[in-house]
Specification:
This protein is mostly helical and 391 residues long. It is 77% helix and 0% strand. It folds into 2 domains: 1-185, Growth Hormone, Chain: A (Up-down Bundle), CATH 1.20.1250; 197-386, MFS general substrate transporter like domains (Growth Hormone, Chain: A, Up-down Bundle). Keywords: Membrane, Transmembrane, Transmembrane helix.
């Protein structure tokens, strides 16, 4: 068996490759509008379809305890291959809103066997220093989420067809799945369950410390994916409001989202000095402040100020994500660790659908101030952290 130090880079790179499926549709949304005659509300619907597929997938994975009963590596591989195939379907002609919704839903379902299972693989290899390890892993998710925007930037400058974004992300997912299957065996700290037990799901929230971490995570998720989904929309709206501003939307969308990958890694290291809960609290508080401050930044005429602010928001909005997952994994019984990570992820992503649909609706009524409602999430998360027993 390879040493854990050699395994982590493989898991991180594979996670990056496979999670590029997540926002592949968002990166080419303007082209989807034109090619398949979609309306403006398609952004929220297609993004929510991925989230809904992920939620249903994680619920099924959790109730069947698949990540604890079967080899996580094989589960990751199968999910990556299926996700790549469903994602590739977007590139076919004669799609319409219904077929695109189905394909994005199935892609999200497949991601349920990638993101939380990747965390389970890391937890099976790292009994100590899990926060730092998950920092790298969530950082890979962030970069993977931003990567389609980076690809889209090159299709715009080199006149490559938009379908190359979809093809490339599918190929990356294939690659990531095969790397896990070939080179990442079951970890030394894995404790397999012999059979499915319904009480495994119920036990996840019987621990007060785990519940407190989960509530913090839920508040964080209210803000995270809606912010990511709206980054290119915010930039496009700003260029419309201030025609003299000159910047590339795809490139800066990639940078604003992708910079969070670095902050996830740094948060893991910082947490070893300040503590996991304190570091997560600071990040959640700062992101909540960004939500409230956003309208004032958007309404001023300096592109530099806007881009700098959005980059800072991109840093703090996701820095706490691996820390909350660390708290969940650290407080879950070892034999149901995979189930705990999966069920908490499932509920968190269910919250993103509510947030996405609410902001998507209100944005058409009030484009600027509606995004300040994202502050509800950090406020709830902080309340959950500090009204529960100390972690």
């Amino acid at each position: 068996m390879k040493p854990a130090k050699q395994i982590l880079p493989l898991i991180v790179f594979s996670q990056f490759c496979c999670t590029s499926l997540w926002f592949a549709g968002n990166a080419v949304m303007p082209e989807l509008y034109l090619n398949f005659n979609l309306n403006e509300e398609a952004l929220g619907h297609l993004t929510s379809a991925v989230q809904f597929g992920f939620i249903l997938g994680t619920l099924i994975f959790a109730f069947l305890s698949l990540a604890d009963r079967f080899s996580p590596s094989k589960l990751f591989f199968i999910s990556a291959v299926l996700g790549a195939v469903f994602n590739l379907g977007i590139a076919f002609e004669n799609n319409n809103l219904n077929t695109l919704l189905l394909l994005r839903f199935l892609t999200g379902f497949s991601l349920a066997g990638i993101y939380p299972v990747g965390m389970k693989l890391a937890a099976d290899y790292y009994d100590k220093g899990l926060g730092k390890s998950l920092g790298y892993l969530v950082g890979a998710l962030v970069l993977g989420t931003a990567f389609p925007h980076f690809l889209k930037f090159f299709t715009g400058t080199e006149n490559l067809p938009w379908r190359w974004v979809i093809i490339a992300t599918s190929l990356f997912a294939f690659l990531g799945g095969f790397l896990i299957f070939l080179f990442v065996p079951n970890g030394p700290f894995r404790k397999a369950k012999g059979k499915f037990k319904i009480d495994a799901v119920l036990r996840v929230f019987s621990n007060k410390k785990l519940r407190s971490a989960a509530f913090g995570y839920f508040g964080h998720m209210w803000e995270l994916y809606t912010f990511w989904a709206f980054v290119p929309i915010i930039l496009a709206a700003y260029k419309f409001s201030f025609p003299n501003s000159d910047f590339d939307i795809s490139f800066w969308s990639f940078l604003i989202i992708g910079i969070g990958g670095v902050s996830c890694v740094m948060a893991g290291y910082i947490s070893e000095v300040l503590g996991v809960k304190k570091t997560a609290t600071i990040a959640l508080l700062l992101s909540g402040i960004c939500c409230i401050a956003f309208p004032f930044i958007f309404l001023q005429a300096s592109t530099v100020v806007l881009i700098t602010f959005l980059c800072f928001w991109g840093i703090v909005v996701v820095a706490d994500s691996p820390l909350f997952s660390t708290l969940v994994a650290g407080n879950a019984p070892p034999e149901i660790k995979g189930t705990a990570l999966t069920i908490v992820n499932s509920i968190g992503f269910a919250i993103t659908i509510v947030s996405l649909q609410l902001i998507n609706y209100l944005y058409h009524l009030e484009p600027v101030y509606s995004l300040s409602l994202l502050a509800i999430g950090p406020a709830f998360g902080l309340l959950g952290l500090f009204t529960k027993k100390r972690l």
